[in-house]
Amino acid sequence: MAKIYKLNNQIKNYEWGSSHLIPQFLGIEDYKKIPYAEMWMGTHSGAPSQIESCLNDVNPNEKKYLKELSGELSFLFKLIAVEKQLSIQAHPNKEQAVEGYRQEEEAGLALNAPMRNYKDTNHKPEILCAISPFTLMAGFREYEQIKSSLDSFALIFPQLKEIIASLIKAVNTGSLAVFFRILFNLSNLEREYISNLIIEKENFETEGVISSEQWNLIKEFASQYPGDPAILSPLYLNLITLKPGDAIYVPAGILHSYSKGFGVELMAASDNVLRSGLTPKYIDIPKLMSIVNYNPYIPEIITPDSSSWFCYKTPCREFVLALMRCSGGENVFPAKGPAICIVTEGELTADGVIIKKGESFFIPTGEVNAAMKGNYTLFAAITADAV
Predict the structure, then answer these.
(1) Distance separating alpha carbons of residues 292 and 232, to the nearest angstrom
(2) Using CA atoms, how far apart are residues 291 and 370, in angstroms rounded to an integer?
(3) How does pLDDT run across 275-317, given as a tens digit for each residue?
(4) Fewer CB within 10 Å: N-end or C-end of the chain?
């Protein structure tokens, strides 16, 4: 029988997280009323997982980290809970990450410095899969969609006609890079004027060009981040809501931002993030613009079939996200390790160990035919060559 190891993982308490989604999912009863944003599963130095069976050793200081068993994993697996808007961000490709890391190292920036963009030399393609309905923005909309939205916005706010006209002109030239540069080069006075008009607007009618969902986000952003040009992002980024089980893949250079929901996220083992707005964190527009993909991009929504094992295929070689379901009896884990799994419904028994909803475990390299009994649903992070 294949050997498995239960994991103990670290929580990230970012301001945009939820005070209840992750604690309730993990079965934590006396949790603090603070935002629980992410739970990291993997070997990334930012929050490495431990092997749970080693946490109660006679010498409590001798804690065994997953890396000692697995080596450096090529992926980072997360639970993610979003209650407030995340920053609009993009991640670099491998070449950009290597060069950006080199430049910041030579500049003497500490890894934990607020102005640090590159924490490592890796790229960060990622896939997000919804456990609950999940709302997000990702990728530039088509040119005509952006133009129509800007036209409608100008009709709502005729006071902004000249500002909007310059943005529409850039879109008409087929250059979203120019559009982006003009938007983020607006003066502070112009930015504040746009925010104030949005905040003061009570009645909203757009004849369907700008949806109520888009408008509600714009209004919310203007209240939370007055003066930020990114409050207009629902006009130029695709607004998407995933159903439970649906997933999208976000490659390098694609602007994206999560608005609300609970899910799992799988990515290459990196923490490189460059932000464009909707955040109190450091924003570096010139460096962000150097990595952004300015082509319209509509992410494909990947919907699983009803099989007991489904792989969310992406072009990435570092990882594959898989969904495994069993309604009783015994299933064999169909991929070889290394793999990290988290149970999202029910419970299972494997290698003589009971694993309940919210618990995670590791299957080492070379282990095959891990038998799992029970009524459960789990997500698995594996490498592409393990399928």
Answers:
(1) 18
(2) 41
(3) 999 998 999 999 999 999 999 999 999 999 999 999 999 999 8
(4) N
Give Cα 353 distance to the centre of its chain: 31
CA dist., res. 120 & res. 344, Å (int): 30
pLDDT tens, residue by residue, 229-266: 999 999 999 999 999 999 999 999 999 999 999 999 99
pLDDT at 337 over 90: no
Contact by Cβ (8 Å): 318, 268? yes
- Whether the pLDDT of residue 351 is over 70: the answer is yes
pTM: predicted TM-score of the whole model, two decimal places: 0.92
Residue 325's SS3 state is strand
Amino acid at 289: M
Q: Tell me the residue type at 291.
A: I
Measured in whole angstroms, the distance separating CA 8 from the mean position of its chain's CA atoms is 21
Give which of 75, 79, 64 is closest to 17, Cα–Cα. 79
Topology of domain 309-386 in CATH is Jelly Rolls (2.60.120)
Q: Is the peptide bond before 234 cis (omega within 30 degrees of 0)?
A: no
In sequence order, which residues have a C-beta less than 8 Å from that of residue 117 and are 6 or more positions away? 100, 104, 272, 273, 274, 282, 284, 287
Q: Quick one: 10-137+242-300 is in which CATH superfamily?
A: Jelly Rolls (2.60.120.10)
Q: Could you tell me if 168 and 290 are in contact, meaning their C-beta atoms sit under 8 angstroms apart?
A: no
User: What is the DSSP code string of 207-219?
Assistant: TTSS-HHHHHHHH
Distance CA(124)–CA(37), nearest Å, equals 19
Domain residue extents for the chain: 10-137+242-300, 141-235, 309-386
Question: Which residues are known to be catalytic?
Answer: 275
d(CA 235, CA 218): 9
